[in-house]
Every structure is written in C-alpha cells, then in structure tokens.
Automatic annotation (TrEMBL):
InterPro entries: Adenylat/UMP-CMP_kin, Adenylat_kinase_CS, P-loop_NTPase, UMP_CMP_kinase. GO terms for biological process: 'de novo' pyrimidine nucleobase biosynthetic process; pyrimidine nucleotide biosynthetic process. It catalyses: CMP + ATP = CDP + ADP; dCMP + ATP = dCDP + ADP; UMP + ATP = UDP + ADP. This is UMP-CMP kinase. It is found in: Cytoplasm; Nucleus. Consists of three domains, a large central CORE domain and two small peripheral domains, NMPbind and LID, which undergo movements during catalysis. The LID domain closes over the site of phosphoryl transfer upon ATP binding. Assembling and dissambling the active center during each catalytic cycle provides an effective means to prevent ATP hydrolysis. It comes from the Eukaryota. It is an enzyme of class 2 (transferase). Its EC number is 2.7.4.14. Residues 61-91 are annotated as: NMPbind.
C-alpha cells in the first residue's frame, strides 16, 4: 500500500512538472500585440509604418486582411466575406480573428504585431477575448487622440483616392467611432492599458512620443 501511494505521488509530481513545462512553452509562444486605435484620420497607418520600420513590429489591418481574403482565389472565407459586404452586414468576428492569427503565424519571429483599427466595437472585443485572449500578450493600446473635426479635414485633404473620404461618409465613420470605439478605449483605460498620444502635431513629433511609449514598455529600437 505504501509503495502504491508512493507511486501515485511520484506520478502526480511528474504530471505536475509536465503541466508546468507545457504552460511555460505555451507562454513563450504568445504573440506580442499592441492595438492601435483612434478616429479616422488620426494617423494610425503612418505611425504603424514607422513603428514597423523602427521596432520590427508587423502592421496588421483587420480591414485590409478581410479585403485581401475576399479576393484570394480558393479562400475558404472569401465567399462569406463577399456576401456580408454585398449585404452591408458585419463579417463574423471569428473570421477576422482567424485572419489575424493566420497573419501572425505566417510572420514568424516578429517582435510583435500592431493591430490597426481593431477592436472597434464590443462584438470585436468579445470575439477577440474568446478566440485570441489565450494566444497573445496584449502589452497596451496605443490611442492616437485627435479632435474629430481635425481628422475630418485631414481625410478630406489627403487625396488618397479612398471612396469613403467624403464628408458624409466621414461623418458616419466619426459617429461610429464615438459611439462604438470610444467605449472600447474606456474599457482598456480602466485596465490601465491605454497609452494616449496626441496626434495633432506633425507625424515626426507624434512618432517621437510613440517611440517613447514603446521604449518604456520594454521594446528596443532596431539598429539601422
């Protein structure tokens, strides 16, 4: 009986060691993530490009990934995405999360990932936490704050050929941002995860503040 108890104890200890080892291995594979949020025209794309270049992060845009997947021959999600876009309905967040995860896996050993313009509403947030919460380490949310009227004028003046850069569309996008995305930013503020950087100055001045945020979070600039 004593030997039996001893064997079970040893087996239990071995199992515990295996579990702890497995958890350490899983933790070491977590993707480093920074969400980048702000109103349309706040300079998210510009700052993401600079962070990607200088800190070795990979810039992922949920919208771009959906558009690319929609057009990719043989895509398992393409027809579904097309149907939702055609009907003016929202693509299920599970698909968006899967595309983001696939892009992270395909990027190999990147320092981290900048997820641009996501999560933009409560459904995005709930889906992300359900699908990806255990697979990533969210370091912080980079919030590029800028008055909506300033952003609107920027969008109207940038002449990038975007079909939604017209005044009516921009008003709708700004309304959606204020009603749906701001509550997400407030949610992360309560968790002390928001790093607020004003994006009113020049892109160079904004980037100087952004780089300081990344350095304080423990990320080291690349040696160019």
């Amino acid at each position: 009986m004593h030997h039996s108890r001893s064997f079970i104890t040893r087996l239990g200890r071995s199992a515990r060691v295996a579990v702890h080892t497995s958890i350490r291995q899983m933790s070491s594979k977590l993707h480093n993530v920074v969400f980048v949020l702000g109103p349309p025209g706040s300079g998210k794309g510009t700052q993401c490009a600079l962070i990607q270049k200088n800190f070795g992060f990979v810039h992922l845009s949920a919208g771009d990934l959906l558009r690319e997947e929609r057009q990719r021959p043989g895509s398992q999600f393409g027809e579904l995405i097309e149907t939702h876009i055609r009907n003016g309905t929202i693509v299920p967040v599970e698909i968006t999360c899967k595309l983001l995860e696939n892009a992270m896996i395909a990027s190999g050993d990147a320092n981290g990932f900048l997820i641009d313009g996501f999560p933009r509403n409560q459904d995005n947030l709930d889906g992300w936490e359900r699908e990806m919460g255990a697979k990533v380490k969210l370091h912080f949310v980079l919030f590029l704050s800028c008055p909506v009227d300033v952003c609107t004028q920027r969008c109207l003046g940038r002449q990038q050929g975007r079909s939604d850069d017209n005044e009516n569309s921009l008003k709708l996008r700004a309304k959606t941002y204020l009603e749906q995305t701001m509550p997400i930013i407030q949610h992360y503020k309560k968790l002390d995860l928001v790093r607020d950087v004003t994006s009113v100055p020049t892109s160079e001045q904004v980037y100087a503040s952004v780089a300081e945020v990344f350095s304080k979070a423990g990320f080291t600039p690349l040696q160019n």
